Each structure stands twice: as C-alpha cells, then as structure tokens.
C-alpha cells in the first residue's frame, strides 16, 4: 500500500482529531529524522500509523489484542489503552502491508518506550509528545530542546516528564518506561 493509500484508509477509520494528530506526528517525525539522521520515509510511515488502532474503543482493545495473539499483562489489563500500540504494529503489518521491522517496532514502542530504543523508536515516541496539536504544560520546553539537545537528552527529559505526569495522577508507571529511562542514564 502506498503512503497516500495508507493516509486515505486511516482518514476513513479514525476520528478526524485522531487523524489530524497522526499526520502531525508523521510530519514532526520527518523533521526529527532530518535533524537526527534517520530515514525520513520510515519516520513518516511510523508516525502516520502509530495510532492506527485508536479506531477501537478502550473496551474493544483486549479482544483485538487476543485476535492478534498479543499477550495481555497486568499493566494492560489495568490500562487497556496501552494495547493500541501493540495492536497498531500488527495492523500496520497486516492491514497496511508494512513489513519493515524498524517501523513496526517504533509503532509498538511509541506509548511506553523500552530499554535500548532505536533512533526511530525515540523519534516516534517524542514526535507523539510534541506534534503541533499537543497542548499541555511543558510541551514548548520539549519542542525547544530539538534545536540544541541530543536525541538521548531529549528522550531522557521526555521520559522523565511522562513518569512525573503519571505519578502525579496516581496512576501506574509502566516498567518499560522506567527501563527506557534507566537505560539512557546507565549508558550516557
């Protein structure tokens, strides 16, 4: 499937605001890829498709995960929205014909991160946080870091901010997010 075909199909499946967000992430990912020396086409496709499973409501996600053979852990049972990333990676492969392992992994990891993230993983995780339609306290600080900081410095700040936000909400912190942050600290 071409990128244009992916976009047309995604526009049909997603709510308008989610589609606009996805295009914003794709365009932001291209800018980040250019800045940090990654493949711009891969960044665009991963950004465009990162939320393709958001066509499903939260209560539908466990059944969709089961249909794709995706294991559901305690964290995902408690927070089914997390499943959209894993389902999205499977949909990118099966519905959109993406067979690039790097793109699929970036979609899989875009919500909670992981230890030893690739450059593309980091770009999609961060692009999702700072795309132009995002509006939350501190987003402009994160956007401003793109000009001068390394990708690892940016990601460390983004992961830290994400953990602080989740803790302040008295919600669960996914172990993969902690692992991603710790990996950066241990290897910098």
Any chance you could write out the topology, listing elements then pairs?
Blueprint: H1 3-13, H2 16-36, H3 40-49, H4 61-67, H5 74-78, H6 83-94, H7 101-109, H8 119-130, H9 139-145, H10 151-168, H11 175-186
Helix pairs in contact: 2-3, 2-8, 3-7, 3-8, 4-6, 6-7, 7-8, 8-10, 10-11
Q: What's the gist of this structure?
A:
This protein has 188 residues and is mainly alpha-helical. The protein is 66% helix and 0% strand. The radius of gyration is 16 Å and the shape is globular.
Account of the protein in words:
This protein is mainly α. It has one domain (3-186): Hypothetical protein af1432, CATH 1.10.3210. Helix content is 66%, strand content 0%. The longest helix has 21 residues, at 16-36. It is globular, with a radius of gyration of 16 Å. The model has no long low-confidence stretch (mean pLDDT 96).
Q: Tell me which CATH architecture applies here.
A: Orthogonal Bundle
Classify the beta-strand content into a percent band: under 5%
N-to-C span: 39 Å
Going by CATH, the homologous superfamily would be Hypothetical protein af1432
Key features of this structure:
188 residues; mainly alpha; Hypothetical protein af1432; globular
């Amino acid at each position: 499937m071409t990128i244009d075909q992916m976009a047309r199909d995604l526009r049909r499946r997603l709510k308008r605001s989610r589609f606009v967000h996805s295009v914003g992430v794709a365009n932001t990912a291209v800018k980040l890829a250019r800045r940090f020396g990654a493949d711009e086409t891969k960044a665009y496709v991963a950004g465009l498709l990162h939320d393709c499973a958001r066509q499903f409501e939260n209560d539908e996600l466990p059944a969709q995960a089961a249909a794709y053979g995706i294991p559901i852990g305690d964290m995902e049972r408690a927070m089914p929205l997390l499943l959209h990333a894993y389902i999205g990676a499977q949909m990118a492969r099966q519905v959109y014909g993406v067979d690039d392992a790097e793109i699929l992994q970036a979609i899989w990891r875009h919500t909670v991160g992981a230890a030893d993230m690739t450059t593309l993983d980091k770009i999609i995780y961060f692009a999702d946080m700072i795309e132009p339609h995002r509006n939350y306290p501190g987003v402009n600080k994160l956007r401003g870091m793109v000009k001068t900081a390394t990708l690892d410095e940016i990601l460390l700040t983004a992961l830290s901010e994400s953990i602080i936000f989740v803790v302040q909400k008295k919600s669960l912190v996914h172990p993969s997010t902690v692992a991603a942050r710790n990996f950066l600290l241990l290897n910098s």
